[in-house]
TrEMBL record:
SUPFAM superfamilies hit by this protein: Protein kinase-like (PK-like)
Signal peptide: none
Domain Protein kinase: 267-543
Domain of life: Bacteria
Single GO MF descriptor: ATP binding
Listed Gene3D superfamilies: Transferase(Phosphotransferase) domain 1
This protein's name: Protein kinase domain-containing protein
Amino acid sequence: MRNNKQIVTLNVDGLIERAFQTNERTRQAKLLSYDGYAITDSQAFIAKDAYCCLNLHGTVYQKSRWVMNGAERRKLTEGATGTKYRAFLTWLFQSHNVVFVGVNPEDVAVSPAIQEAQKTGILGEHFWICPAPNSETRKWAEKNGVRIIAYTPEILKDGSRVHSTTICSILDDLEQYTAPEPEVKLPITRTEIDVEEFPECSTLIDMINKNRSETIDLMAGAATGLGCKYEFTSRQLHEFIRRNSLAIQMATALDSKVDGYNSLGQYKLHEKLQGSGSSSVWLVEDTTNGGDYLIAKVLNGNTHEDETERQSFRRGIQSMYLLNGSNSSIAPKYIDHLELPLAVIMEHVNGSPLSEVMAMGDFCEPDDTLKMFLTISRAVRNCHISDGQVLHRDLKPGNIIFEDWFPGYEKSQLLEASVRLINFDLSWHRFSSGNTKAISAEETGYYAPEQKGLKNTAPPRSASTDAYMLGMILYYLVCSEHPPEGGARLIDWVDQVRRVVNRRFKNRTVSNRVTRLIDLMTRQEMNERLDIEAAQAEVESLLNFMKRDFHKVDHDVFVENLIATSGRDYSWDVDKIEGKIRTSIQAEFLIRYQPKGMSCEIEFSRSRGDADTRATFGPKINKKISESIQSLKDAGWICEEGGAVIRSLKAKIKISDLIAKTDLGASEMNTLSGRLLANFD
């Protein structure tokens, strides 16, 4: 599984770490390794999709933390530490899909966590790659929601069995596999009518002129009958629509001010709210249900013959219907729909779109923009994890509604408002098939590269498209400007992001991390984009950093803050969790996070450059490093000095000690970098 970054093991042999270090793709990155007693420290980095290895029973390098027998297992799983340990494993099985390889999930070290997760009713899809499972094993797996993938190992000429080749092949297949899903069934809202006895198009037009409401219900019934008999993507339904295109255009000729054209079945039109080349949106009154005011969205008459447009519109109806069953209100509630003319009736959501919020100017503080991003991203994420696994794919300011908030209300009410998403025509869900329409509209800066052109250039079944669009929403929140046409394809995209973010956030650490976040979310390649859950974890950490709630801040933030407060230009490696100061002299100045011991490490080395005098360089660098070591020791760092020809120093400090400093170590870092990186002559 080439894209997986987290692994859990019960072995203590350290094989995972050794394999990681020798793999061509990963050896330059940092693997964060945690044993069972420190397992909860990994949660923030798992959320950020960092490389993590969880050695539940310890590693060969630290015998004192091995878990080899019942007494040692009880020590790990009971008491205060055990409570956190068990809660973490339960969370793991609730929120992730787990593949068991070379380990028995019936093992007492694992099965209680699976069973506890199952009790909550929230359990991911788990797989057990298992050679020749017996009947009892199959019964256990079925009871606990674990799918068995049985295999036969490869048998060599000498009779020995090789498991690895087959297992690796299964893992690759699992990563690429998309389960076939049945089509989602929308409710039958109109009586099915046999089209064999259906009027000709010219007769339908006369009927529409005489009794519009009844005729529209008749047409919807005919389309419903065909769809139920042959499927709603069938050639038969498409041919019926083509044959009756003039009648459909008559049925969709709507005007709230003209009698005879101011209704859609039982719904009376009051006001046109929005219109486009493919559809129109109306405020309507339900004349048969107490006069409720609702929203009707209608596919335009001439668009019905475009199969892609029609199926995209219908898929949007399906997405809203699926989201009706969500625990939280994310989309307008589905009320009703017609199959012909294709229309959806939905709840009227009161509130203001994000575009109106941002039009108020400097209404929000910098941290408010991050809070709003979190609220929006959580709504999108709730779509993704709903039973229908809905992907919105049309995230832009006009489609994001802050419920029950209007200009003139307090800012605190805005930050507490729920976010509702509208316009699901481009959406995708777990039961979808085929393709969806591509983009050729205004505000194209929000759309991902795979959505543009005559057709989508990548399958729509990917959450990374929403991640891209959320990255562009964050850009918009930061600078109140729509992202430029071309977006991340622009040569100077990252520089442009950095400029607008720097104007908004004065803290250099926050500014640099927000810039990096937008960059990672808007990468052109889908598999390079940061996922939404990781983006949320980063923003939550930054918000806590900004309000100095440091015990909720990820440790790597403090490490980067040190290098950022040096005032010097630097690069940051996300995978290595390491920063490097850029300098013109022959020196290397690194600051990194060390998960073992949860500490920050500084490593410095400098060799003589062309501008340095040979006779005086040695004494001068020796003096500078000696002074630096002493000042670091005085500030609570543990130091070591090294090198004779190339002078160097190493120092480390626990993150907890760094947090205890009023300025988080900024003053000593300024002094240190100024002393070590200055020209000597």
